[in-house]
Amino acid sequence: MVPTSYHLILSGILFTIGVTGVLLRRNIIIIFMSIELMLNAVNLSFVALARHFGNMDGQIIVFFVMSVAAAEVAVGLAIILLVFRGRETVNVDELNLMRW
Amino acid sequence: MDFVTFFALAIPLVVVAVMVIAHPSPVYSALFLVMTLFLLAVYFLFLNAHMVAALQIIVYAGAIMVLFLFVIMLLNLQSDTLRTQRHGLGRVAIIGGVILLAELGLLLQGSSSELAESSLPENFGTVEALGSQLFTKYLLPFEITGILLLVAVVGAVVLAKR
Hey, is A92 helix, strand or coil? Predict the structure, then answer.
């Protein structure tokens, strides 16, 4: 049997890959995908801990995380479409209208 | 889950996740993300989370990724390269990522061994068990989720139609 810490370490690695993607890539869509990757890493640790403690609340939290992620993607991609129509770019370095 | 299964799933998972952020073309990134989500669904099955695994495939690999691919094709993007930034954010990202990973590893090393794994009930993680919890104990959050999704749909349509 694999100890729970292995699952949590894998979750940490996936989360780190997501953070690196957000900081490294300049394409706003790939930044969005990296955020999805981070959400999934967190879901993985929720599921692993739910199993560890024999408590199903962790899996229910995953259900809510998924629905919030779906809502976030729908609105976020609509905003990206809108920005692209106005500025003809998806590079976050060029989208600096609201930067101080 | 035994060690062979764990590594057979974990190694492809990490490789595919790295490809998501490393591939220059957004379409390939999206397809690698689909692979990541599928592998995670299999992983969830091994962790006694049947319902979550099914939802992972239906919601993530089905709905969310289709939305991603639609937008990528609507935008007609050219693949961009992993060029270096003016402000050196890439180096900061790598250093920060390594530190974060080291911290997580250190934290896990000390704490996890003391906790014994509790035994699981018969129907742990099945659709029936999860559903009965969702419609009794968590009814109010469930309804609020419905409102949230409605707001998101209305918002997306209003934004995209403008």
Answer: coil
How far is it, in rounded angstroms, from Cα A55 to Cα A58? Answer: 7
Structure-block tokens of residue A75 = 């609105």
Residues for chain B: how many in total?
162
B51 is written with which tokens? 């319902």
Beta bridge partners of A91: A27
Is residue A27 classed as helix, strand or coil in its secondary structure? Answer: strand
Contacts of residue A5, Cβ cutoff 8 Å, sequence gap at least 6: B108, B109, B112, B113
B78-A74-A88 Cα angle (round to 5): 30
Average pLDDT over residues B19-40: 92
**Spatial separation of the C-alpha atoms in residues B114 and A45, rounded to whole Å:** 18
Residues of B in contact with A17 (CB under 8 A): 14, 17-18, 20-21, 97
CATH code matching the domain that covers A27-92, chosen among 1.10.287.3510, 1.20.1250.20, 1.10.10.1100, 2.40.128.120 = 1.10.287.3510
Q: Which amino acid is at A95?
A: L
What digits encode the pLDDT tens for the residues B60-111?
888 899 988 988 888 877 656 555 455 666 777 778 878 887 887 787 776 6
Question: How many CB atoms are located within 10 Å of the residue B51 CB?
Answer: 21
C-alpha angle A65-A69-A71 in degrees, rounded to nearest 5: 120
Closest partner CB to B117 (pick from A14, A52, A59) = A52
pLDDT-derived band at A1, boundaries 50, 70, 90: confident
Min Cα distance A39 → chain B (Å) is 11
